[in-house]
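Annotated sample (chain length 365).
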Amino acid sequence: MGVLRIILALIIVMEHSGSLRIINWISGPYALKIFFIMSGFYMTFVLNRKYIGKGSYSLFLSNRLLRVFPIYWVVLSLTVGVGVLSYLIYNNWQSLTPYVAYNDVMGIGPLLIQIFTNIFLWGQDIVFFFGCDFNTGSLFLTSDFNHIDTAYYRFLLAPHAWSLGLELSYYLIAPFLVRRKTKVILLFIVLTLLLRWYLYSIGLDHDPWTYRFFPTELVFFFVGTLSYRLYSYIEKNEINKNIRISIVSVFFIMFFSYNYLFSFAIESYWIPIFFFAYVGFTIPFLFQFSKKSKIDYRLGELSYPIYVVHIIVIRTLGLLIDKNNWQINKGVAVIIITILLSYILLKYVSDPVEKFRQSRIKISK
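Output written by the structure step:
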């Protein structure tokens, strides 16, 4: 599924860079939700096949942290460094601007929380539900951060990393959920959908409630768990190859022409439910086709560094283009530079850590 993962990452890059949206494929938020489904599938897979027995919870969690943090910390350091360099050259602090602007009025509590969330990711999804009162130096809840001038999320150095905070929260509870009976997983799905329906019914049908609220986003991880259950079945029961190809083909048709196919009912809640249910249904067949491909695996490995590093590329390149009047296509340049930097991060940061991670699993066995 590596090809799909890198396509999803590039969709998010294109959406954030505001260019290259030339076909009617899914949106960035939808791409993230598919990532959550795939994460639910992979986590259920490894928890049922690799992390079993005494000490498996701590091993699983520490290995996930080793997967997430090294690349993120390198990019976070680059973000701070580029901010300082940008100020020295262009008098622009970039992502450090809020800290410079409000350092004398921000309370110690909110400051420490932001330092923690920026370094350790946990809580980055939650800060979108808060504003900061600079008269008192305290935080307050808000139902819509777009309508306040002091949105707390502005202090995130890598604001797109909120989804990683949400993922880490899932990792904490996944070992206690993914081995539950199928009927229990189905019950969790119904409950999360009912909660989402209730929030929509009281007017909370906008960002951040639509895709940053952890209790309702859990539904996508649960769909991934059901997807693994389906994979376990088809792994033991041969499915006709033509049927498998047809299932995957229908998925990609919907994926690349979503807005065109469903334009007649774009406001319907049932269309997304159908689409994401079909994503979960398709993933086992995609995994069957791709699981033995080293090239596909390597492409998929690029998706994480692409996701983490692309914002700093967009910000820095945008500043350079504006200041130097470069006549280049920003969207194309962002894609190329992001992929190049991602490969460097993968080869020199992720790969050495990955060897250590895999050795820990072998030793534990």
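Annotation: The chain has one domain: 2-132+154-364.
Annotation: The chain has a mean pLDDT of 90.
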